[in-house]
Design brief:
Length: about 180
């Protein structure tokens, strides 16, 4: 496994929402296991012992939902990639850096430092919904708030609340 270069860059911002729950709730989300076994082993050494990590995804190569057009306009990134992400109550995704393995293969991206990731919160924060980036807790977000970072900034997410947590995950390259 290639060790990603750590870059401590991230920022928070806001995009005016144009979507509604009907745009993202009713898809057939699928659980996709975390793709880095070394990271999973590290989590287990910390005491995490759940049967599966990560939430559920709906995204590429599925047909694009109509409301995705607004995200493409808001994030004018080269090699735009998207995933809707649903974390059910009881789901945790411990501290990690994304590998962008599929993205790099799909678009033949050689330099991981050119890759950017955004997580857009599709709903207002609810009790038990958690996101942390580079050691900073983010909570009380509003629908349309987002976090964007370059390459390998460490982050984590959890849902210890009572309702699913929905986000749009966008990956791309900025020219």
């Amino acid at each position: 496994m290639e060790t990603p270069v750590e870059n401590k860059w991230y920022t928070q911002d806001f995009v005016e929402p144009w979507w509604s729950p009907e745009d993202y709730i009713n898809f057939e989300y699928e659980h996709v296991p975390f793709n880095d076994s070394e990271t999973v082993q590290e989590w287990e050494s910390w005491g995490f012992n759940q049967a599966r990590y990560t939430g559920e995804l709906y995204g590429m190569p599925n047909e694009e939902p109509a409301f995705l057009k607004g995200f493409k306009e808001a994030f004018e990134w080269k090699h735009f990639s998207w995933q809707l992400y649903r974390m059910q109550p009881g789901t945790t995704l411990p501290c990690h850096a994304d590998t962008y393995q599929k993205f790099r293969e799909l678009y033949d991206v050689k330099d991981p430092n050119t890759i950017w990731r955004a997580v857009v919160f599709l709903e207002d924060w609810q009790s038990g919904h958690y996101f942390e980036i580079d050691g900073k807790n983010l909570s009380y977000w509003k629908k349309g708030d987002f976090v964007v970072w370059q390459n390998a900034v460490k982050h984590l997410a959890a849902n210890i609340g009572q309702t699913p947590r929905y986000t749009m995950q966008i990956t791309g390259v900025i020219d």
